[in-house]
Design a protein that fits this description.
2 copies of one chain form a homodimer.
Chain A lengths: L1 H13 L2 E18 L15 E14 L5 H19 L3 E6 L10 H16 L3 E4 L4 E9 L6 E6 L1
Parallel strand pairs in A: 2-3, 3-4
Antiparallel strand pairs in A: 1-2, 1-5, 1-6
Helix pairs in contact in A: 2-3
Chain lengths: 155, 155
């Protein structure tokens, strides 16, 4: 009991990346404006103001402070591959999302992690990657089957 | 530095409720089927299979193990009130959501907390409360302005 509690405590302290995966009928994103917070944010260059996708897995990703990027992006890729097989769709949306944690990584590290995930997925999947560093309107039209939404923590 | 780290560690260990608040143009939910997991889940009676709302704050709530329900529901009500004032809409959707944590409370405790939040809000807001214990299709059509999405942890 005590050992179990200690393990749980330790795991929580080591968590470095959080992700929420949704199986969506429809996805749309539109950049509303470039973000100027948190204070030291460095947004990416904007390539597409609007993106859309049907029948896809939308992956909301929050990168925390001091990530072990390579290991965690591999683990996340495994989760995405598993879900893709189960739902039968190969369209993946990578969405940088600052709202699954209060311990965000620096912009540079966040962009690096998101880019690495994108690169890892590109060979096998149709990947859309949303902009890092902007306020966006967002449409998530999520299927209702079991396993439609999955939360994962990586450490 | 060390004190700061210890405080952060302590706070993480004490976190008991997590919430994600979205300012939505449109919200729709439709029950797909009753959930039979996690293992000991006890779903509520179904009153409405479909719910819709426009111009609302959708509050995804995850209740964790060993919650201090009264204190935390008060803190969450304060967050909802603040956001409602800022966005100028009084329609609130309470959505029990099992996907912001891996340490879920028992069903009884989860339903108790959700019901308490609903009761606290009813006097001041137009409240829709989604079903606890089902797989649902979900439409979140989220505005793009700063502050459209907020993540909160309560402890």
């Amino acid at each position: 009991m005590l050992l179990d509690m200690n393990l749980k405590m330790l795991m929580r302290l080591l968590i470095k990346m959080r992700s929420l995966l949704f199986h969506c009928k429809n996805y749309e994103v539109k950049i509303d404006r470039i973000a100027n917070r948190p204070e030291k944010i460095i947004p990416e260059e904007v390539k597409e103001r609007v993106q859309e996708c049907k029948d896809c897995i939308v992956v909301l990703i929050t990168i925390e402070i001091d990530d072990k990027i390579k290991k965690m992006t591999s683990l996340l890729k495994d989760e995405i591959s598993k879900m893709s097989l189960e739902v039968g769709h190969k369209n993946i949306v990578i969405l940088p999302f600052a709202h699954l944690s209060n311990n965000l990584a620096q912009s540079k590290q966040g962009i690096e992690a998101i880019t690495l995930i994108e690169e890892k997925l590109k060979g096998e999947f149709n990947v859309i990657r949303a902009h890092f560093g902007s306020h966006k309107s967002l449409l998530l039209d999520i299927y209702g089957h079991p396993g439609n939404a999955r939360y994962r923590e990586f450490y």
